[in-house]
Specification:
Blueprint (H helix, E strand, L loop, with lengths): L1 H12 L3 E3 L8 H4 L7 E3 L3 H7 L2 E4 L4 H15 L21 E4 L5 H13 L3 E4 L6
Parallel strand pairs: 1-2, 3-4, 4-5
Helix pairs in contact: 3-4, 4-5
GO molecular function, one term: NADP binding
Pfam families: NAD_binding_2 (PF03446)
InterPro entries: 6PGDH_NADP-bd (IPR006115), HIBADH-related_NP60_sf (IPR051265), NAD(P)-bd_dom_sf (IPR036291)
Amino acid sequence: MASSLARKFLAPSGQSLRIFNRDPAKLQPLLSDESLRCVAITSGLAEMTDTCDVIFMMLSHDGAVLEVVGQLLDALRPSPGAGGSREEPASGPRPPRVIVDCSTVSPDTTKEMASAAEAAGAQYVACPVLGR
């Protein structure tokens, strides 16, 4: 389903698209698809937060959403400085990131992720996709 989403993003824009999958084997069909030649695979979720202002995700269940959003938000937080205090990067504070969750998950998970994102200075948008 995420490959269909990738095609929709690429069709009108011709822009590049960065992708990540928790299971790298699932990326192989995307790499062989000529219509997705503008796709770049990221090495991990931290790279997504460093290079993308808006991150779309489509995951299979609540546990996966909790795991991935947790890792994204951890990557967005400034790293600890001397004495354990949090420091902003030398380039200054990062702009807020937007996480658009296209997963179909429980309302409780959505509320929890929205609160966690807000606490980390990010925005969480629930945009579940139903059907095929």
